[in-house]
Design goal:
Two copies of one chain form a homodimer. Helices cover 27% and strands 32% of the residues of chain A. By secondary structure, chain A is of the alpha+beta class. The first copy, chain A, has two domains: 3-109, Aminotransferase class 4, branched-chain amino acid transferase, N-terminal domain (D-amino Acid Aminotransferase, Chain A, domain 1, 2-Layer Sandwich), CATH 3.30.470.10; 114-267, D-amino Acid Aminotransferase, subunit A, domain 2 (D-amino Acid Aminotransferase, Chain A, domain 2, Alpha-Beta Barrel). In chain A, strands 8, 9, 10, 11, 12, 13, 14, 15 and 16 form a nine-stranded mixed sheet that branches. Chain A has a six-stranded antiparallel sheet with strand order 2-1-7-6-4-5. The first copy, chain A, is globular and about 55 Å long. Chain A starts with a strand and ends in a 6-residue tail after the last helix.
Chain lengths: 273, 273
């Protein structure tokens, strides 16, 4: 698979890169289908917002040019786009001026994505508790030890797991956002204290009226999942996975999941194979 | 300055290293003086504990051999020793088997350290609030965005800043631990919810009786700093800095700071220039 560092084919970065030293970076994972990076505008916007929060300079034009170059040869793959603070600075003090590193890599599209979409997934409840840090909530930054620890605690029968914060608020799944439907109301957790505000989550919030539901980000509890008529997970690689079981609760209504899935295909938000 | 990656002189690591992707690493900054890495046993122990928490395999013998090799030519420097999870895995799922990367670099010893020791420092109070995450508290892992954000908010007259958590408990300074003395009682914050348990902090806790005080880790408040007779900061590079001012409070008693400083020199815990 391919790898570009600052526009040059290269699989190495400096040991002094602050992405390596401190996780001082933001990243996106983007589905690429038939040479097109899907939902690219939204990914670029989120990168830009993350760079603002972390004081990393963002060169959109150069990044877009490099992404386009890598995608030219791709039929179906995952693109990982990372912008780090680059080298320099003194300890935690940021370099000035900074020269960010752009690191773009391509990866195989996950084979299980389609099966999970068709059959639905078994969702567990992680024992890991996310910290509450409003200064970093929402953006997709490079400090991801919590997700790694949560992932290592999945039970074998789970295909994803719900993460709650230390006040027992539902935040997200390990590598996806979560939605629950009660009647024609679609709810997803507010992410002002923890969690990653996914690009596909935003797409779903924006297009809810097209599938006949109203959508809102709210404080969400475990009970709100258990009492839902329909539950699904979203991210930009999988698109959407219906949940067929969460702990002891089973779900049989996948009607809105299927409508969203069709909409995503029509909109070119996910691969259409 | 020198750089070893897995024992080979090299300034580059793979773009697929999970230290870069997720900050999945632990690190130490060690003072080296006259070919000796100071307090090496304690640094190695903390690295090992951090690797255990993050499920990173720890090869002590190889690491010690590489550290020894790099230190042979050093009169005075800072050594940064990092162990990352290495490459592989699927997203947040850890690689199995894993092949950790050992990344050791040398850096100039900071010039301002001695002046701050002699004159004492002005300590501010950061507006940044640390998250509470007991699963990661105490270890020196590679997810350091909070410290970077806190550092970027220092006011110009500060030489360090106190960080509190979201419940207003004092945790640490940006790149040092904090001690306050009331009479013959030396107190430092408990670090079971946030913060890095410094190697020099541990040294001070262990050797308090040698300078005639009792030492304890406790929940600490801003008021406990303001009402102290003496306040100082510690880390393995600076050794110890007396605090002469914290916000509007000034301190004139540096007696225990000086005793600890002399003890550190006698014990070979800090450079003796």
């Amino acid at each position: 698979m391919a790898s570009l560092v600052n526009g040059i084919t290269n699989e190495q970065v400096s040991v002094h890169d602050r992405g390596l030293l401190y996780g001082q970076s933001v990243f996106e994972t983007i589905a690429v289908y038939r040479q097109q990076p899907l939902l690219l505008d939204a990914h670029i916007q989120r990168l830009q917002r993350g760079c603002e929060v972390l004081s990393i300079e963002f060169d959109e034009a150069t990044l877009l040019q490099e992404i386009g170059r890598l995608c030219e040869a791709i039929q179906l793959a995952v693109l990982r786009v990372m912008v780090s603070m680059g080298e320099g600075g003194r300890g935690y003090l940021n370099p000035s001026p900074a020269r960010p590193n752009r690191i773009i890599t391509t990866h195989d599209y996950p084979q299980h994505a389609q099966a999970y979409r068709d059959r639905g997934v078994v969702l567990g409840l992680s024992e890991f508790r996310l910290a509450r840090q409003p200064a970093l909530a929402g953006i997709k930054h490079g400090n991801r030890l919590e997700q790694i620890m949560a992932r290592s605690n999945w039970q074998p029968q789970w295909q994803e797991a719900v993460l709650v914060d230390q006040m027992e608020n539902v935040i997200e799944a390990t590598q996806a956002n979560i939605f629950v439907r009660h009647g024609d109301q679609l709810l997803t957790p507010m992410l002002d204290q923890a969690g990653v505000a996914g690009v596909m989550r935003e797409y779903i919030l924006q297009s809810a009226d097209k599938v006949g539901v109203s959508a809102e980000a709210v404080p969400l509890s475990i009970a709100d999942i258990e009492s839902a008529e329909e539950v699904f997970l979203s991210n930009c690689i999988i698109g959407l996975w219906p949940v067929r079981q969460f702990q002891k609760t089973t779900f049989n209504d996948f009607s809105i999941s299927h409508k969203f899935f069709e909409l995503m295909q029509r909109d070119g938000a996910i691969p259409t194979f």
